[in-house]
Structure formats: C-alpha cells, structure tokens
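EI: anyone free to look at a 124-residue chain?
SC: sure, send it
EI:
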Amino acid sequence: MGTQGTYSINLDTRFGPLELVDVRQLADDCKEPWYNQTLCRVNDCVVRLGVIEGEFHWHKHDQEGEFFYVVEGRLLIDLEGRTVELKPGQGFTVPKTVVHRTRAPERTVILMFEGAGVVPTGDG
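SC: here you go
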C-alpha cells in the first residue's frame, strides 16, 4: 500500500437510523485491499468500517480524536516512539493532533468511531 491512490474511502453514510448493519457480511463482501466505508451516524459522530491490509500513511487529525476497534485480524498503530498492537476485541483511542499510522500485516477488519467531520486521510 504505498500511495494514497490505493485507498478506497467512501464518506457517504451507507445506513440510516433503525437499519440493520451487518458488519460481518459487509467485510466478507469486500474484495479491495484497503476499504473504508462510513456505516452510520450517531449524533455528531460516525462509525466507519475498515477492511485493510498493508499500511496507511502518517497523518493526524487537528480537531478530533478517533477510536479503533478490531473485529478480526491484527492492527498496528504506529505513534511517535511506539507501536500499539490490537487484536480482536481490543480498542485504542488516538487523541486529536497525535501523528499516527495504521498498519495491518494481514487482512484486518476494524471499526472506527470518530467525529463526523474527521477526514480519514488526515488534516493538512
């Protein structure tokens, strides 16, 4: 995954209130190597599905933090000076302004919870 052009990022909200969201089925149907889909909106936040393999670029979000939750696979979150490894059932919050990069050494399914205004590729 070396370049931004290989990311499939879909900011449209796929599901409305009172609609069933089948994360497992969505992940199973995904054939792209780096896929990000906004699933739904909850108040001023969104829930995004990521089906990823490889690495994302270093970036930060100036206004809001984000929470990563691993459904299946393994997610590495690189921070300046350390790397956090998440396994299924584990989550981690990256606060606003913290430079980070996500990596998945194998196909990994994650949920991200963040403010609706967060641009997945980072600010600036």
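EI: The longest helix spans residues 23-29.
SC: 👍
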